[in-house]
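Here is the promised in-class demo. Please do not try to memorize the tokens; focus on the logic of going from shape to residues.
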């Protein structure tokens, strides 16, 4: 099973180059959708305005490169922003699984599209592993980690517009596995598989797909602001600095102990 190429099975049933053109159109859809989202929300304008604002100190080119590398290795590669280990691990499973699935799909379609050009076993195995990782991470998040389900007791079957990205991602990879397990071929499952992927990639302006580009940029901007001192007008996360203590509007918090309020972290919010 892990060494079968479902795309080779459809090569004789579809017009030549069909899947290549489809993937190219999906790539264009993601680029156009992301640009539209950036313009519509003003994300780029905000990002460059923050980078260009006057700062107490200038960051050198070497520091910028070091910050970019640190952002990639820590904030992006390990998803540092997630506060719980379960959500972080589920996100990493989904992220790396999607990367594996996407890269191997492109390799299989463009380099090994027919049975006459067999794909290496490693590529085929990574395709299956990537799709499985997306499903494990995606279903874990959907049924057990979502805030409205885990903390608020909401139904995991309640759907909202904000769920478009997660649902289309899970559906596309689930259908990919079902289609491949059925031996490939052009049938109902194949067209559902294409429909789910079309919703995933064409729906960028209405989903959270573009966040995979925004989050690294936001993490980079945050580290630059910390390095050049332009974030010093924001309150710190601790109260050990007397000047920061005075900034609290509640007099109680001005002289509160550092560990005050940490009891809320002792247990998960499951009191619905």
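The designed amino acids, position by position:
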């Amino acid at each position: 099973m892990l060494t079968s190429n479902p795309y080779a099975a459809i090569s004789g049933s579809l017009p030549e180059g069909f899947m290549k053109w489809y993937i190219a159109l999906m790539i264009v859809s993601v680029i156009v959708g992301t640009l539209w989202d950036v313009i519509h929300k003003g994300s780029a304008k905000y990002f460059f305005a923050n980078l260009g604002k006057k700062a107490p100190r200038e960051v050198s080119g070497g520091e910028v490169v070091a910050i970019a590398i640190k952002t990639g290795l820590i904030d992006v590669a390990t998803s540092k922003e997630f506060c719980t280990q379960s959500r972080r691990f589920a996100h990493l499973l989904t992220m790396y699984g999607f990367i594996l699935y996407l890269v191997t799909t492109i390799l299989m379609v463009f380099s090994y599209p027919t049975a006459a050009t067999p794909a290496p076993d490693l590529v085929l195995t990574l395709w299956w592993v990537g799709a499985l990782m997306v499903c494990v991470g995606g279903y874990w998040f959907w049924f057990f980690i979502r805030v409205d389900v885990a903390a608020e007791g909401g139904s995991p079957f309640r759907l909202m517009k904000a769920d478009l990205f997660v649902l289309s991602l899970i559906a596309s990879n689930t259908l990919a596995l079902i289609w491949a397990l059925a031996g490939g071929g052009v049938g109902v499952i194949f067209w559902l598989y294409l429909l789910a992927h079309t919703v995933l990639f064409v729906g960028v302006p209405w989903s959270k797909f573009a966040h995979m580009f925004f989050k690294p940029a936001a993490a980079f901007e945050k580290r630059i602001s910390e390095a050049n001192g332009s974030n010093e007008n924001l309150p710190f996360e601790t109260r050990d600095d007397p000047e920061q203590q005075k900034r609290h509007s509640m007099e109680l918090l001005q002289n509160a102990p550092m560990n005050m309020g940490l009891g809320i972290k002792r247990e998960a919010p499951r009191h619905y």
